[in-house]
Write a structure and sequence with these properties.
The chain is an alpha/beta fold and about 180 residues long. It is built from 3 helices and 9 strands, in the order H-E-E-E-E-H-E-E-H-E-E-E. The chain is about 20% helix and about 30% strand. The chain is flat and about 70 Å long. The chain starts with a helix and ends in a 5-residue tail after the last strand. The model has no long low-confidence stretch (mean pLDDT about 85).
Length: about 180
């Protein structure tokens, strides 16, 4: 009976995680639709100092959020990329818990054309800190884009909770990624 009770307790605890709702981001409130595009580059001239592998090179990940052309259609940008490639734990959170983040609506159309309303747009470079991935600021940057700003949001591999590198795999905090 003790083992059955323990298994029941474990299932009840895990089941609670599965029942948590999918977070809902507010709709951007500016006059422009929002587009988004992710860029992943590798700086072949710079070694990655956060890993022990001498062949690793520095990755630069930037997500552009911008005023999109009216009526732009297509899939919405993902909230956190690399969800299908996550390690078992991300900042102490089990991978299966993070799966629900794949259903968050970012309100941004992937690779939408830039709005032709203006010839130039003001640019904001956004660099999150304290281990936060760029996804944590999706509401803020999408609102700025809806109000007429181009926002370039950076991810910091091995410093953010989770980051998808140019090669396609996801890394987490610390040197062992």
């Amino acid at each position: 009976t003790g083992r059955i009770a323990l298994v029941g307790l474990i299932l009840a605890t895990v089941g609670t995680w599965a029942l948590l709702p999918v977070p809902v981001l507010p709709q951007p409130d500016g006059p422009y639709a929002v587009g988004s595009q992710v860029f992943r580059w590798v700086d072949a001239s710079r070694a990655e100092t956060a890993t022990a592998e001498p062949s690793d090179r520095r990755n630069v990940i930037v997500q552009a959020w911008y005023p999109a052309a009216p009526g732009a259609a297509g899939p919405h940008s993902t909230y956190i990329d690399g969800l299908g490639r996550l390690p078992p734990m991300v900042s102490g959170v089990p991978r299966f818990v993070m799966a629900r983040f794949g259903r968050i609506d970012t309100h941004a159309t992937t690779d939408a054309p830039l709005s032709p309303a203006k010839a130039t747009w003001p640019v904001v470079v956004f660099s999150p800190g304290y281990g936060a991935p760029r996804a944590a600021y999706t509401d803020l940057v999408s609102r700025l884009a809806s109000r007429g700003y181009v926002v370039l949001a950076l991810d910091h591999p091995y410093e953010a909770g989770v980051t998808q590198l140019a090669a396609g795999h996801a890394v987490t905090l610390g040197p062992d990624g």
